[in-house]
Amino acid sequence: MTRESVSKILSQESSAEELWMALKSGDEYALERLYRVYSKTLFQLGISITGDPDFVQDCVQELFIDLWKYRENVKKTDNVKLYLFKSLSNKINKEKKRLNRWNARQLKAIEGLPQYLESVETKLVNIQREELLQKKLARALNELPVRQNEVIQYLFFENFSYEDTAKLMGINLRSVYTLAWKALSNLKKSVLMLVFLLAGIAS
Fold first, then answer.
1. What sequence ranges are listed for the domain RNA polymerase sigma factor 70 region 4 type (predicted)?
2. pTM over 0.85
3. What per-residue confidence (pLDDT) applies to 115?
4. What is the pLDDT of residues 39-51, one digit of tens each?
5. Rounded to the nearest 10 degrees, how much is the dihedral formed by the CA atoms of 32, 34, 40, 42?
6. Span 3-90: which CATH code?
7. With contact defined as beta carbons under 8 Å apart, do 162 and 173 qualify?
8. Is 31 within 8 Å of 23 (Cβ atoms)?
9. Residues of the chain by 3-state class (helix, strand, coil), percent to 5
10. Where are the domains of the chain?
11. Pick from 66, 82, 87: which is nearest to 23 by CA?
């Protein structure tokens, strides 16, 4: 007897339990028949658990997809309806928990979004402020007298000590201190106004 003829007999004469066994054996028509017999009742059950028709419909369809996918491992049962009811209830509860976890993560992400955006904005402002200050500092350095510029380069950009700077410039240590103090004073005057301006913008 061919599978087609078996399916025809099943569709006309078999009980739910026989359809179940046929499903386990790989009979697609048995799956289709079970869906036709129980899908409406399962949908009504799902609506009684949760009031979301689309969600329930998805769960019912996924239930039968899983039945076919894992048919070889499906347990034997004397009450197919009860088995399907329990399976649907478990699937709905599992999906609801998964969605709740997802929603909780989304809510947490949304709640943290303003702080994140504020942090990004602050970083951008700080970067812009830093770029402006660097440009202003570079301009101020170029405006320094040659020896003052030189002492700043050695001390703060090359990280030489005051003693090494004195040797490099061929002057005594006291002169290095004097040049550095004058250079820093001039730089402060040049940059201070920009710092105050940026501070006012940021606030």
1. 136-183
2. no
3. 58
4. 888 888 888 777 7
5. -120
6. 1.10.1740.10
7. yes
8. yes
9. 85, 0, 15
10. 3-90, 144-202
11. 66
Q: Determine contact, residues 173/163, Cβ cutoff 8 Å.
A: yes
CB crowding 84-97: b at 16 or more within 10 Å, else e: bbebbeebbeebee
**CB environment 29-50: b (16+ within 10 A), e (fewer):** bbbbbbbeebbeebbebbeeee
| pLDDT classification of 173: cutoffs 50, 70, 90 | confident
Nearest to 144 by CA among 171, 181, 113: 181
Phi, psi (rounded to 5 degrees) for 78:
-95, -5
139-151: per-residue pLDDT in tens?
A: 777 787 888 888 8
Q: Domain 144-202 carries which CATH code? A: 1.10.10
- From the CB of residue 75, how many other CB atoms can be counted at a distance below 10 Å? 7
What's the per-residue H, E or C state across 85-140? Answer: HHHHHHHHHHHHHHHHHHHHHHHHHHHHHHHHHHHHHHHHHHHHHHHHHHHHHHHH
Residues 185-199 pLDDT 10s: 777 776 665 555 545
pLDDT for residue 81 is more than 50: yes
- The size of the chain, in residues, is 203
